[in-house]
Each structure stands twice: as C-alpha cells, then as structure tokens.
Automatic annotation (TrEMBL):
PANTHER family: DEAMINATED GLUTATHIONE AMIDASE, NITRILASE-RELATED. InterPro entries: C-N_Hydrolase, C-N_Hydrolase_sf, Nit1/2_C-N_Hydrolase, UPF0012_CS. GO terms for molecular function: hydrolase activity. Residues 7-264 form the CN hydrolase domain. It comes from the Bacteria. Belongs to the carbon-nitrogen hydrolase superfamily. NIT1/NIT2 family. Keywords: Hydrolase. It comes from Salinisphaera aquimarina. This is Carbon-nitrogen hydrolase family protein.
Length: 283
C-alpha cells in the first residue's frame, strides 16, 4: 500500500575518507538530518563507508552478507539497520564492500533497508569502471578489486512506489534503465562517486537523460571533494523528476542533504499523456 502520493526523498552527498568509523558517524548525522527534514527515503552515495587511500583498502573492511546469516562482524550493516529503525527511514545504502567467493575481490553491494531496519533488497554493481580518461593520465580498474554482479535488474516494492537500483557507472548504460522501467520502476537511484573530470563533462546530462527516457524520478547522490587516494569527485548530488527537471541539487563541495517531494500523481499523468514507453519498437 502506498504511504503517500508526495513522498519526500533525500539525496545525501558525502566526502568520505579513509576510515570507516568517522564515515559512519557522519552518515548517521546526515541521515538524522534527512529525517528531521521530513524525508521518508534517503539515498547514500557510492562508497559512503570508505574511500580509501588504496583500492585494496576495501578488502580489509569487507563484510559477510548479514542477510544470509554468515558468521562474522558486520558493523556497516548493523549501522544501516539501526539508522533506518531509529530514524524511521527507508535507506538505500550507496554501496558497501560485501565478501565474494574470491579472496582478492568483493561485491559493490547497494543495500536497501526499510524503516523497521529490515534488509529488503540488494543490488551488486554490474558495470565496473575500467577506464582511462581522455587527455589525462587518470585511470581506474574497478575489476581488480570488485566482482560484477548478476545482470538481473532489481526493482523493489516500497511505500513510495516501485524502486529501481543502479550505481554510478551504470548511468552510461541506458539498457539497464530500460529494463528497470520495464519492470515498473517509478523511482531509480544511482548512488555515485563520479570523478571531477567525468562529472564536469557528463553528470547532469546523463542523470537527466536517464530520467527523461524512462519517465522516472532519478535520485543520484554523489561523493564530493578530495579523498584519501587523491581522487577528486564531482558532487552536485541530484534529484531529477520524470520530465528531466532538476528538483534539488547540492550546491556545496561538502557533506550535504538535499530533499525534494516527488509527485506520484504527476508521474502517472506524464506516463498516461506522453506514453513514449509504450511507443517503443525495438527491444
């Protein structure tokens, strides 16, 4: 049952550092702020719990999947469950490193918790950022430390409508968003750690395009600023409505919460009066 026709959603921007505990404390404060501002759904950025000095740092803090009852400490997952319950928030938890069968690689897992603190969904990032940036020595190879997830789209039923999950580099692959849309997604999240270079060039156009193409609200919290590795991320966390209009955008280069009210009736009107999704002839 839908809770409201105008849910308030928060995109949480962070400048995560190289130690988990301070990042969790900061995320806790930002989630509490989102709840105080009336948000019922809050989305954290990619790698919110750790942006380490080295790519391999994530291996040292990787957790077993608590939902599977695996043995071991799970401080990040425990924090998320507690924060969701204490704040009465649904939380999309950016990504955290979850152990894989391979000792030297982990999953970039986007976890979803309901407002009772129960884990209700998981999506493992499928498109890994293995790139060299044009006209630059900047290069990344996420596949060295991450295992790509299964390609089945993840769409969850929530009190705010159907929620589709994606992560960062996924924004460059519109076929994933078509699949999420075909599965009924009305809100799509894209927690990110877009670099300064790629963000400046493409962040807004990609976020708006994915919203427009699929007549869906897009919530894209981003990392921002300088991190322990020297990596620079772009910020400008966004909430974009189904017509491609920016409803909220982070204006600082620091930790920040932005909120917007999503009009589900307006979404239904758009999809009814401008039925481009049903006009598709390919795919």
């Amino acid at each position: 049952m839908l809770e409201t026709d105008t849910p308030r959603i928060a995109a949480i921007q962070m400048s995560s550092r190289g130690e988990v505990a301070p990042n969790l404390a900061r995320a806790g404060d930002l989630l509490a702020d989102a709840a105080k501002r009336g948000a019922r759904l809050a989305v954290l950025p990619e790698n919110f719990a750790l942006m380490g000095a080295h790519e391999t740092d994530k291996l040292g803090v990787a957790e077993p999947d608590a939902a599977h009852g695996d043995d071991g400490d799970t401080p990040i997952q425990d924090f998320l469950s507690r924060a969701a319950r204490d704040n009465g928030l649904w939380i999309v938890a950016g990504t955290i490193p979850i152990a894989s069968p391979e000792p030297d690689r982990v999953y970039a897992a986007c976890l979803v918790y309901n407002d009772q603190g129960e884990r209700v969904g998981r999506y493992d990032k499928i498109h890994l950022f293995d790139v060299g940036l044009p006209d630059s020595r900047e290069a990344y190879r996420e596949s060295a430390t991450f295992v790509a997830g299964e390609t089945t789209p993840v769409v969850l039923d929530t009190p705010f409508g159907k929620l589709g999950l994606s992560v960062c580099y996924d924004l460059r692959f519109p076929e994933l968003y078509r699949a999420l849309s075909a599965a009924g997604a009305e809100i799509i999240v894209a927690p990110s750690a877009f670099t300064q270079t790629t963000g400046h060039a493409h962040w807004h156009v990609l976020a708006r395009a994915r919203a427009i193409e699929n007549l869906a609200t897009l919530v894209a919290p981003n990392q921002t600023g300088s991190h322990a590795s020297g990596r620079q991320t772009y910020g400008h966390s966004l909430i974009v409505d189904a017509w491609g209009q920016v409803q909220a955008e982070a204006k600082t280069t620091a930790n920040e919460v932005v909120v917007a009210d999503i009009d589900r009736n307006r979404l239904a009107e758009l999809r009814s009066g401008f039925p481009c999704l049903s006009h598709r002839r390919l795919g």
